[in-house]
Write a structure and sequence with these properties.
- It contains two helices and seven strands.
- The protein has a five-stranded antiparallel β-sheet, with helices on one face. A two-stranded antiparallel sheet has the order 1-2.
């Protein structure tokens, strides 16, 4: 009999996979088509891991999964005056140089819904402003997974 493998939290939502044997919270299950194939299933976000021929194999495969990565924003630079990147659908990040301040302002807009950006608005360089917008974008996307 093989030793039981410790299961890592869900790489997508961070949910703990515990109650292994309870029917109302299955951490792994056998498929009805093939009862000797197992997969880990997160009951919080419903992510299912790869199939394996044993529960330990399914847990090892689950543990090897990587957390989701958010793609980098694709910027269109405005000749040193700022930049624009499309986030999703019609939402955009805008970076504008304020000449009087010598700083770059980050804003987020969605047509018909005004603007909304909770981060620090002004940055000393275009690259710092882009990094702030990317961090905000990643936080918005990953928040949807929780």
């Amino acid at each position: 009999m093989s030793e039981e493998v410790e299961m890592k939290p869900c790489p997508f939502c961070g949910g703990e996979i515990d109650d292994m044997g309870k029917a109302d919270h299955p951490a792994y299950f056998a498929t009805t088509q093939n009862p000797t194939r197992y997969a880990v299933n997160c009951s919080r976000c419903l992510t299912m891991g790869p199939f394996a021929p044993s529960t330990n194999g399914a847990i090892l495969a689950w543990n090897a999964r990587a957390a989701p990565k958010v793609k980098a924003l694709e910027w269109k630079d405005f000749e040193g005056m700022g930049a624009k990147a499309g986030a999703y659908y019609q939402a955009n990040y805008m970076i504008t140089l304020w000449r009087g301040r010598g700083q770059f302002e980050v804003s987020f807009s969605y047509p018909g819904h005004g603007t909304g950006y909770d981060g620090e608005r002004f940055h000393d360089s275009l690259e710092a402003a882009k990094a702030a917008a990317q961090a905000d974008y990643e936080a918005r996307i990953l928040a949807a997974l929780e």
